[in-house]
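Recall that a protein's primary structure is simply its ordered list of amino acids. Everything else, from secondary elements to tertiary packing, is in principle encoded there. The following example makes that idea concrete.
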Amino acid sequence: MLDRVIEKNELLTLVDDLSRHRTVVGPVARQGRYSYERLEQIHQLELGFDYCVYSPRQYLLPPHEVLLTFGPEHGETKAVPNIAAEPLAIVGVHPCDLNAIRLLDHVFAHNHRDEHYLTRRAQTMIVGIDCPRPCTEGVFCADMRGNNANAAFDLMCYPLSEGAAGNVRYGVIFGTDQGREWLLYNQAGAGPTADDQRALDSYRRQKAAAFPKMLPFDVDSLPRLLARSYDSLLWEATARRCYSCGSCNLSCPTCYCFSVTDELDISLRSGRRYREWDGCQLKNFALVAGDHNFRPHAASRLRHRIYRKGKWVKEREGLPGCVGCARCDRACTAKINSVEIYNQLAEEE
């Protein structure tokens, strides 16, 4: 059920006001493509974008982050955690990326809490924008159930109609008290009518019909399919053209692996510990002490990534490890395609 309706122009005014208190990040057009960037002016915000080259993951889990500093203090070595976060708002997040953030929220709060991520996340407000049709060719978000979101946002906006000069009328659903208070405190929008609710129902029916099915099976059966395909010859055949460059890992919104390094200063008495994004497609990702590599071949690394996205994350975390955004496929310099892999494995069955 709708909680509110609001015109696009009024929403932009609210976001502009929000930028006085928070750093605002949103989709910005750059040479025909969109990327999530810090907004300098509200007119840069493109709510009608198709897709962003990268997800907003970098603002919640930075590519490079200092975790702590250490050094001598009163004859002992002391470590000081580096946990800090600025108030942030990410505006214009599509359902696939919301589902990815939902997974990151769970992973970093589950079992071993990551206070660096969680502190940053607690300071972040997220405004979702639903997409009525596939954002580009090759996406399989409907197959992975990533084209609809019901969590990880403070408020979600559904485009119900478009008026003069592109002034879209959004139906709003609150995800948190923070999102509710933001609109209601500013007395923004209006209460939804029965016609608004019918417009949302119609929108959802049209959206469901607009997303084609790319896989010949239900995603719930994907873990079982992969379990039976561990020894498939497809892995070696496909990996022959893999460069192990890690582009798929860097562009994926659900990848959360990182390496941790201690760096000493010239005195060898103090320094810092930092983490950086890492990726399972990189040759040395599984290298351990003794110079042993658990996955020395490209085929084993490719299989590991596909299994992680389609099987292991789901089994361990209870949430999908892939949201079907196809960024990995678009970023792959060797044109390796996840949908093709899944479909070929299904054909082998």
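The first strand starts at residue 4 and ends at 7. The CA atoms of residues 91 and 127 lie 5 Å apart.
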